[in-house]
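Ops channel
N.P.: pipeline sanity check, posting one input/output pair.
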């Protein structure tokens, strides 16, 4: 009697309700074992995945993946969203220094962790397409390089001092506003540049029917070619963990869509935004983000 061989995979995923069943081994597989690396925050895994393929399976910001794909990195996208959220409340200003709205941003200095940060790309897209802001006239101030080493900040983008801190610089008036990721600072002086962001989200979603994608999952091209069954099993486990977490909640948005078609509208939009902002050198087709195995997942 033969014993089924176990494929052991090195994995980097954040800690979420929908990854907890995997990390606690409540969702398992007879053929694949997931060996998790503890990397917090998880975005610190992205650069090593792009540059060194440090994992077999990794969460990755979608703009990082689009840039990696544009520069020929051997990575394949899985149609599995780990982080999806609306971004309208993620650009903050110090209310003690006077009201700032999107129309006030041209000519002002705005901080963002990296120019290629996905939240920043979504917000600049909203500012340009929905609020008519000329984002080229905003003085962007960055604090880190992109995860993809081939990308360089556009001309005119300023680098903050090595010891710079977005929140301290916003509070001090050195920056008119700052763009934040998932964790917003707990300071009542900091308010959203986009007025009434909850209502703005409601109206934006009513127009577009899209939930912005921040992080998806990628696998190495080597794994996808050599062990497509293992890749399919990883996808099955991710989906099973989402269901085990009771997501999506009844009546709520599905902010973790699975399957190519479910992800397509948001992917098309972020590709458009990346082209507008010169974050990628050419327009990518949705189909080329996946391979023959991952393209059929979720159908």
């Amino acid at each position: 009697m033969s014993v089924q061989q176990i494929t052991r995979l090195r994995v980097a995923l954040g800690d979420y309700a929908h990854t907890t069943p995997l990390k606690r081994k409540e969702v398992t597989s007879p053929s694949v074992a997931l060996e998790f690396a503890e990397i917090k925050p998880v975005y610190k895994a992205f650069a090593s995945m792009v540059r060194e393929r440090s994992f077999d399976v990794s969460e990755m910001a979608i703009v990082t993946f689009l840039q990696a794909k544009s520069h020929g990195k051997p990575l394949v996208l899985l149609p599995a969203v780990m982080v999806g959220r609306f971004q309208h409340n993620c650009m903050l200003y110090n209310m003690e220094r006077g009201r700032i709205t999107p129309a006030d941003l041209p000519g002002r200095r705005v901080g963002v962790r990296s120019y290629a940060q996905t939240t920043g790309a979504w917000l600049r897209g909203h500012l340009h397409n929905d609020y008519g802001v000329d984002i080229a006239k905003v003085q962007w101030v960055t604090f880190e390089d992109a995860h993809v080493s081939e990308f360089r900040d556009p001309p005119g983008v300023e680098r903050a001092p090595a010891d710079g801190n977005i929140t301290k610089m916003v509070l001090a008036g050195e920056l008119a506003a700052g763009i934040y990721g998932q964790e917003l600072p707990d300071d009542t002086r900091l308010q959203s540049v986009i007025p009434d962001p909850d209502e703005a989200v409601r109206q934006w979603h009513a127009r577009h029917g899209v939930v912005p994608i921040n992080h998806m999952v990628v696998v190495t091209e080597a794994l996808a070619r050599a062990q497509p069954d293992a890749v399919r099993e990883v996808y099955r486990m991710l989906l099973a963990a989402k269901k085990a977490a009771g997501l999506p909640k009844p009546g709520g948005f599905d902010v973790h869509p699975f399957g190519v078609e479910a992800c397509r509208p948001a992917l098309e939009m972020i590709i458009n935004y990346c082209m507008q902002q010169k974050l990628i050198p050419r327009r990518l087709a949705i189909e080329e983000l996946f391979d023959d195995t991952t393209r059929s997942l979720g159908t």
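N.P.: looks fine end to end. Residues 228-244 form the longest helix (17 residues).
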